[in-house]
Amino acid sequence: MARNRPTGELRSGWTTGACAAAAAKAAFCALAGAGFPDPVRIRLPKGELPDFALSERALNDAAASAAVVKDAGDDPDVTHGATVRATVRRAAPGAGLVFTAGEGVGTVTKPGLPIAVGEPAINPRPREIIETNLREAADAVEWTGPLDLEIEIAIPGGEALAQKTWNPRLGIVGGLSVLGTTGVVHPFSCSAWIHSIHRGIDVARANGFGHVAGSTGSTSEGVVQRLYDLPLEALIDMGDFAGGMLKYLRRHPVSRVTVAGGFAKLVKLAQGAGDLHSARAQVDFDKLARTAARIGADAELAAAIAGANTAAEALALAQAADLPLPRTIAAQARETGRAMLGDSGVRLDVLIVDRAGAPLAATDPDLRIPA
Q1: How far apart are CA 340 and CA 307, in angstroms?
Q2: Where are the strands (E) in the chain, listed by range?
């Protein structure tokens, strides 16, 4: 595990790219005849100098390999605890650094990602971090000549772990991606999720999908996929980041986007929130009651909605009175989203789904969902 951990209320950790760089540096030093540094220290783009303990090492005449165990800190990262292994071999003169995918590292099969089709899914910044550290190590071990090396990165078990990530819908097959811009994993990173949203949109655009759907969760995603018969690559795991998705679409438009989610999440969007997380946005029940009153709620019902403990309770009150509140919320959420999309020309529709996976309301008239 790495030492010199960033500190904070929640433990930060290290990206897969940082782990790959540490393993690659240790393997390179051994290949160069300087032995395996353990722990191995690397330099990250913002100046951090973490140390990583080696969990594996091997050396023969043709190659050296080393591995570290990823510690993602308190971030719910599916690769936390995974082994990240690098094998370094000499390459043909003039080849430079050649990256290859070992066991558990995926291969890019669709355009739209920062790595070309056919390349191992090792992102540009991790490649840069690896190269920076190998060049520093080359100076330290007095390596002579150019760095013509093959760097194979492997994550045993990565193909199974990748099924829990965005990789299948991004067209990355055979395993995980080696990611990380700074080398540091910040717990519950909003920026990492938004980055994934952006890449999902990039892949959808590059593959010619004019209609994408952003969903707050798996239930709403299943409904919107079924209603529109959308391919996996057109589904964006938006989560709470409606604003992050829509603002990116403003700059990178498609013909059409559908935002799908539960009633509570989309009430927040209707009330102007772009981040729908409960820690950062709350339902304004007084505003919700005023909305209900405008569409026909009497004073007693409006007061009950204003005093509701949850959005689910407010919805139940409205449904008991046959008040078309979901339809109104969907329309208001669409207006909020349209403002975020600006003059991009993207058509926006909103779909509200209940917890059982039944559509409650939609702004798309072709769906004909009862209020």
Answers
A1: 30
A2: 2-3, 13-14, 40-41, 51-52, 56-59, 63-69, 83-90, 97-101, 107-108, 149-154, 172-173, 184-185, 211-215, 235-237, 256-262, 347-353, 359-362
The Cα 105–Cα 153 span in angstroms is 7
Contact 342, 250 (CB under 8 A): yes
Tell whether pTM > 0.90.
no
> What's phi and psi for 39, nearest 5 deg?
-75, 160
Beta bridge partners of 88: 64, 151
pLDDT (tens digit per residue) in 152-164: 999 999 999 999 8
Residues of the chain with pLDDT under 70: 1-10, 76, 187-189, 279, 370-371
Nearest to 23, CA basis, from 49, 2, 54, 62: 54
Q: How far apart are CA 151 and CA 164, in angstroms?
A: 26
Cα–Cα separations (whole angstroms), residue 304 to 43, 252, 297, 328, 332: 58, 43, 10, 18, 21
33 φ, ψ to 5°? 95, 10
